[in-house]
Structures are given as structure tokens and as C-alpha cells.
DNA sequence: ACGCTTGCTGTAAGCGTTTACATTTTATCA
DNA sequence: TGATAAAATGTAAACGCTTACAGCAAGCGT
């Protein structure tokens, strides 16, 4: 026997107070089935009276809907996330779902093995951002037909999990073509972290566009910026110290662009006169850099809301679109041309 | 009867495969009680074999420890949060807890009434940041002796909930005193959102320091910046348009400072020559503004980790320190003096 | 050989819901 | 009015765990 005599009230207490059965209380709680208006009022009064809160564990066990979806993502604090979340919640709240977040930063996937705290038995569905889950975890969800939508990551081979992402390659191509149009030829690329899919496509767009304009690709002009201002600052500083000539930097995201701008200015370079800089995402701070950052606008909020929409379909048992590709757009500010 | 015949395995399946009872499986799962080495090995093999995952709902019901704590906060995307989270996880992970996040942005507290998705029956404790929960919700936790720690918010009257925050008033005083020391006299203040406690103390520090130096307080020099670059930009632009003379701005946080810097530069002001700017928090981007931002460093990560420590004490049934005040420190960069 | 202790394992009750099904009440219609 | 359908409510099983308690085997001292 367990010791659970904390002043918590249960559905039975509510039922007793309202002089109905627990089934009826459950019906009003879930707005399911028929309940007479008078009875419903009585039950609701009792609920308020006792400050009753349904026990989520018991609900899970009984197999009811949780009205809960989880978002799993690698790290917090990126302005990117703020927008993403806004989009996700927009779609979700309309359908009566709540959103819980789990951040995998600092957890090895081995630690998580037995204990991913958001999973198929305490949520109705999951949105997984970038590579925050291992392939085997995704496989497990797939095997169990558990609703999952991938954001900014295409599913591993063989798994049919819907995916929402943006036109990375096209966006990168627009950025690089613009740089070339401004007369730049020595265009460097600051990549994202190893294995990141967004970065992969952005780099491909960069390479293809160079090629299309007859500019040879030079590996010395590519460094890892890890989507981080600090890492990018170091990388750019290194280029300067090595005396590598660069007249433009295409950064795989806005954070890297920010670090690049800082490093360039430290090195006494004028932006955009000496070196032009273009970022990717158009996060909120992009207009606050000095000079304001030219960047490829990714419809982040829309991506979030589309992902949630697909998840909702899945949770309803409908089929979802397996790939949603959102268009990107070049936003020209002053970091690129006066 | 419910239809839960999704390929999910239960503890019984594991027990059957390992030829033991469910009690034994439970014991190895929770590392509780005695189990012979050979048996344990057999059970673990079975767990891996079936890719078994304990049902969290069932665990909650049976009254076991959840190994889960929740963080409730108002909005995501602030670099502030990234550091906070790091600190919290640091302490938590060491004790075997996982962290789930719930963001109240865009939920009225009325919506949440019955359904705060992180609560006393699915977590072992909660960390509540700033004013993300209503007083009545806190009261409920208090009545039920549920472990809660407040971050950057003192508890409502009558509730004995431990609180961790920083020396806002002292920090603000250092900032303003420094500005005055640099010869500034027309010092404006960009406040945080209405009702925010950090902002309240920072403003008080601002006022008291002015008074201590015989500088009269002028309400025209205080505007709401809402901890937001965009709002602050508007506010500062308004000052410029109104022709209010200002030779320094003390912003209640770094976001506001960033907006202020931008607005000032738009208006053709030189920083720091014409107007000095000081922020608060020392978030990661503070050194990337141009000029780099002088700011009051709040030990955000430490605050997170202290909060988690107090929560752990509470969850163990020990008593926690009711108020932890962390020291702040002025970080001088170039936005303040060449 | 006996009773003790100690280590290991099993049995089964109980946690708080949801829901299929049974039952009772109310409304409808000839 | 009585028969019948529809609406409202109740009964009780099932969900998958944890843990108090009981049982059993082996080791020990006498």
C-alpha cells in the first residue's frame, strides 16, 4: 500500500459532493457523452469547491486523450525558437492542446534511453526539431505508429515521418547570387555544426551558385561557425590572421553572421565596403546589428504552425503531407551594400 | 474496456521473458531493494530485448518518484534562459532528475485553471520563473506542501516558498553610480514590463542613486522598454523626437539596451560620446553589440543552479533557505566610456 | 538437528481515471 | 394511456505500475 493521503481530492470526492457517479464527473470533465445541464452545473460547482485537478497519470492509464503534445529540441535561448514556438502554439491552442518542451542539451542520448520524459505514453504526439533524437528513438515511434512530425530534419531512410522545413538550398542560392551580383568573388561560407541538415543544404546552395557563375570553390573559404557567434568570431579572426582574402561572408545562420561582423570590425574591416555579410533566418536581432544584417528570411513561425497542423492530422488518424517545404526570401539590409 | 493493444510491452512481458515476477522487474528498474546479480542481468536483457519503456502514468499512480522537475516560465527565446537552464540542469542532472519546460506565453491564466500541464501529480517539484503563475496557483502548491522554488520573484504574502534572485538594487546602483562618475547627469531609465519585480528593484536602485548624488528624479526620463529591443527602440526614438536631452541610458535589461543603442544610432547619436548606455544581465550577445555593451552581470547560471539545489532539498523533505540573493557585478565595455 | 538471521523472490492490493454496458428516467407518439 | 425510443446516469473492469508482506532457501551458531 502506498502513502498518498496528501490533501488531494479525487474524482470520487467530486462525485460524492455532486451526488453523481464518477462516470458522470468524467463526462463533464471531458465534455464527452450526454449530461443534463443541471447535473453539469452541480458537478462544476463541486470541482471548483474542492479545487479538484484530475490526476494526469490516472488519465494516461485509462487511455484517454492527454491534450498534450511535446516539442523536443536541442538547445534553448536561440531567438529562432521563440518564433518557432509562437507558430506551434498558435495551431495547437486552437485545437485544445498544451505544449511541453524538452531540451536535449547536455544529455547524451544514452542517458535518455529508458527515460525520454516526453514520449508515447504521456503525450498525444511529438514535434522533433533538427537532430535532437537518435534514429533508434524515431524508429520506435514509427513502429508504434505514434504521431511524430520532424522540423528541419528529413526522416531517416525507411521511416515515413512527415517533415516540415524550408527551402534552404534555394535561399542560399539567392544570397550567394546577390553577393556575386554586387561584384563579390571571394565569398566565404560559415557552416553550421557538423551533421546539421539545414547547414548541409545551405552549403550546397552556396557551392552550386558559385559553380553556376564560374567561381571556383575553395575549401579554405569554408569554416565551421556552429550556428554560434563565439565560434564564428574565432573562425573569422583566424581567416584574418591567415591573411586569407575575403570580400564577402555567407553565414549559415544569423548568430554566425553576428560573430562574423564582430570579428571583421575588430580586424578593422568596414562592412559592407571591405566585406559584405549575409546571414540566414532573419531572427529578431538581425535588424539590430550594425550595420543591419542582410539575411535570408526563413518563415520560422509558419514552419512551426505547419508542423503543428500536420501533427494534428496525425493525431486524428488522418494522413499528413510527408514533406512541407517553405519558401525563403532575401531581406536586403545594409550589411551587404550601402 | 479500452483499446490499448498497440504493440506496447508492459512490465509483465518483461517479467515473463526474464522468468521473474513483476516485483523483481520493478526492483531492478528502480534500483531499490535486493536483487541477485544474475537475476538483474536477465531482467536487463529482457528490457533491452523488448525495448521496454515504463509507463509514466502507471508510475505516477503507484506513487513512485518521478525523477522529473518542471520549469515554468513566461517566454522563450531570451538568451537569458539559455544560461538559466544550463545552471538548473547542472544541479538536477547530478541528482538524476530530468527537466520539462512549460512556457506560459500566450495562455491566459484562466485557460490554465484546470490544466497546468506540469503539476503536483506529474512532477516531483517545480521551479517557477518570474510571474508566470498566478497567486492562487502558488497557494495551491503551498497548501499541498508541494516542492516549489521561485526564481526572480519573491513569494506572495503568507506563502513560505523559497526564492532565488539577484541583487537587483545594488547592481542598478553600481551602474548608475558609474554613469554619474563618468560625468553623466541626464540619465534615463528604460524599465521592464509593468509589475516585473526585477525591474522594480532596478528602478529603485536607479532612483536612490540619483538621490544620493543630488540629482533630481525626472519622470520624463523613465519609459517602458518591456525587456524588449523593439519596444525600447520606440521609446528612445520618442525621446529623441521630443527633444529630451539625455546623456546616458540605464536599461533594465540587455535587450532594451540593444534597442536603445540602435535607436540612438539611427538618430545620429554617438555612443558613448553623446549618450552612454548600460544594460543589465550580461547575456551572451552583450559583447557583440557595437559598441560592446557595458552591463551589470547577473550570475544567471548560478541562480539557476542554486534554485535547483533548493528544490532538491525540498523534494528530499529537508528545509530550504527561504531567500537566496546573488551578487551582481558591473562589467565595463565600450558603450559607456571610450 | 534446531532455530535464527539474512538474502532473494513472489503475491496481490491499490493508485485515479475512462468507458462499455446496463439500467433508470424522461420524452414522444399513436 | 401504454409502448417505445431517446436521454441521462450508474456499475465495474481495466489500464501498468510500486510496494507491503509473506514465503523460501541457505548459512550460521549452538
Give the strand order of the largest sheet of chain A, numbering strands 1, 2, ... along the chain.
Answer: 2-1-3-4-5-11
H/I helix tally of chain A: 12
CATH level-3 fold name of the largest domain in chain A = Rossmann fold
Strand content of chain A: 15-25%
Order of helices and strands of chain A: HHHHEHEHEHEEHEHEHEHEEHEE
- The value of Rg of chain A in angstroms is 25 Å
> Oligomeric form of this entry?
homodimer
Task: Classify the secondary structure makeup of chain A into a structural class.
Answer: alpha/beta
Mean pLDDT of chain A: 92
Distance between the termini of chain A: 75 Å
**What is the H level of CATH, i.e. the homologous superfamily of the largest domain in chain A?**
Response regulator
What is the CATH C level class of the largest domain in chain A, in words?
Alpha Beta
> How many domains of chain A?
3
Shape of chain A: elongated
Spans of chain A with pLDDT under 50 lasting ≥5 residues?
1-5
How many DSSP E strands of chain A? 12
- Main sheet specs of chain A: 6 strands, parallel
Q: Which CATH architecture of the largest domain in chain A would you pick?
A: 3-Layer(aba) Sandwich
Percent helix range of chain A: 40-55%
Amino acid at each position: 500500500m502506498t502513502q498518498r493521503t496528501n490533501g488531494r481530492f479525487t474524482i470520487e470526492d467530486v462525485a460524492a459532493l455532486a451526488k453523481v457517479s464518477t462516470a458522470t464527473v468524467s463526462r463533464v470533465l471531458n465534455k464527452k457523452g450526454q449530461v443534463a445541464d443541471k447535473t453539469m452545473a452541480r458537478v462544476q460547482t463541486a470541482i471548483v469547491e474542492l479545487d479538484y485537478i484530475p490526476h494526469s497519470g490516472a488519465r494516461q492509464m485509462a487511455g484517454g486523450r492527454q491534450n498534450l503534445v511535446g516539442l523536443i529540441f536541442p538547445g534553448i535561448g536561440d531567438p529562432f525558437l521563440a518564433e518557432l514556438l509562437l507558430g506551434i502554439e498558435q495551431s495547437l491552442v486552437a485545437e485544445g492542446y498544451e505544449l511541453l518542451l524538452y531540451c536535449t542539451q547536455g544529455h547524451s542520448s544514452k542517458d535518455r534511453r529508458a527515460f525520454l520524459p516526453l514520449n508515447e505514453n504521456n503525450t498525444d504526439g511529438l514535434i522533433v526539431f533538427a537532430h535532437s533524437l537518435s534514429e533508434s528513438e524515431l524508429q520506435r515511434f514509427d513502429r508504434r505508429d505514434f504521431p511524430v512530425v520532424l522540423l528541419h530534419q528529413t526522416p531517416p531512410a525507411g521511416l515515413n515521418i512527415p517533415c516540415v522545413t524550408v527551402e534552404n538550398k534555394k535561399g542560399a542560392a539567392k544570397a550567394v547570387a546577390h553577393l556575386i551580383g554586387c561584384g563579390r568573388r571571394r565569398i566565404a561560407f560559415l557552416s553550421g555544426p557538423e551533421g546539421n541538415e539545414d547547414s548541409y543544404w545551405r552549403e550546397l546552395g552556396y557551392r552550386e551558385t558559385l559553380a553556376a557563375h564560374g567561381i571556383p570553390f575553395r575549401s579554405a573559404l569554408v569554416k565551421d561557425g556552429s550556428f554560434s557567434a563565439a565560434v564564428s568570431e574565432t573562425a573569422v579572426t583566424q581567416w584574418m590572421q591567415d591573411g586569407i582574402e575575403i570580400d564577402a561572408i555567407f553565414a549559415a545562420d544569423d548568430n554566425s553572421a553576428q560573430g562574423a561582423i564582430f570579428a571583421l570590425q575588430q580586424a578593422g574591416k568596414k562592412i559592407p565596403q571591405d566585406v559584405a555579410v549575409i546571414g540566414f533566418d532573419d531572427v529578431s536581432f538581425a535588424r539590430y546589428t550594425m550595420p543591419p544584417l542582410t539575411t535570408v528570411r526563413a518563415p520560422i513561425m509558419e514552419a512551426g504552425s505547419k508542423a503543428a497542423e500536420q501533427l494534428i492530422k496525425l493525431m486524428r488518424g488522418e494522413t499528413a503531407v510527408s514533406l512541407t517545404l517553405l519558401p525563403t526570401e532575401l531581406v536586403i539590409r545594409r550589411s551587404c551594400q550601402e
